[in-house]
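Duplicate of #3305? Posting structure anyway:
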């Protein structure tokens, strides 16, 4: 498809997407992570790419890879690495979509040796990571658009709207784990988009690829 040609709707636009989980080391052999597959972020990257955008993906550790070699792929492991890559790439970005499931906490101390099994219980002290999206929200210039995701299991709308405002976003995509067909590792999803303007859009259950195309078309309608 790289050779067949792409649509032109997003030609000339730089799009930055974060995707996948992060891994936070405990010791040389263990880490804390989450169930994100990266699928939604990759689908969004491909949808933008197929409409002509210059696409960069900052990708946590994942098995999935995009189909198109023209997508600029920046692999990272930890929240700290994802933060550094996002801060570096953000100034050049016209549209930034933060779809990654960034760890909220990391081990405060990383053991340089493998932790040996001793007592019956083990406590690992954790410290907060930087909220990358909120940081980008403070750096956003007027021509830049910033979109977040919200993963919720209760009080979904209240939490999503709070994140939209608190992180200075143009829109937030709400993923509710309560919705059937929505969740980790599935090829389908069901999302709602809340815009800063107050407008909202509900996307019924469908494949992540189709949702991504519809999201990208929705974003285009704002321009
Ligand atoms: N996010 C981020 N950096 C973090 C944590 C989250 O950039 N350290 C981004 C995610 O990529 C997502 C948005 O913030 O776009 C919301 O993530 P979510 O986990 O739903 O919300 P949190 O603000 O982390 O709050 P909580 O997990 O307590 O619901
Ligand atoms: Ca979180």
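Output from current build:
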């Amino acid at each position: 498809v790289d050779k067949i040609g792409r649509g032109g709707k997003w030609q000339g636009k730089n799009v930055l997407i974060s995707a996948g989980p992060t891994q936070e080391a405990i010791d040389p052999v263990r880490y804390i992570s989450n169930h994100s597959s990266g699928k939604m972020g990759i689908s969004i990257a491909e949808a933008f790419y197929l409409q002509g955008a210059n696409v960069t993906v900052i990708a946590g550790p994942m098995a999935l890879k995009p189909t198109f070699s023209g997508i600029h792929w920046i692999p990272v492991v930890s929240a700290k690495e994802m933060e550094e890559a996002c801060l570096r790439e953000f100034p050049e970005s016209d549209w930034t979509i933060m779809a990654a499931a960034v760890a909220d906490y990391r081990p405060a101390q990383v053991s340089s040796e493998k932790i040996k099994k001793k007592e019956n219980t083990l406590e690992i002290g954790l410290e907060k990571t930087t909220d990358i999206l909120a940081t980008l929200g403070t750096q956003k210039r007027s021509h830049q658009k910033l979109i977040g995701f919200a993963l919720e299991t209760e009080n979904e709308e209240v939490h999503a709207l709070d994140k939209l405002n608190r992180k200075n976003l143009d829109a937030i995509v709400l993923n509710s784990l309560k919705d059937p067909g929505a969740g980790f590792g599935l090829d389908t999803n069901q999302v709602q988009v809340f815009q800063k303007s107050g407008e909202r859009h509900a996307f019924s259950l469908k494949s992540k690829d189709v949702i991504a195309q519809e999201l990208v078309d929705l974003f285009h309608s704002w321009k």
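Confirmed duplicate; merging threads. The first strand starts at residue 14 and ends at 19. The mean pLDDT is 95.
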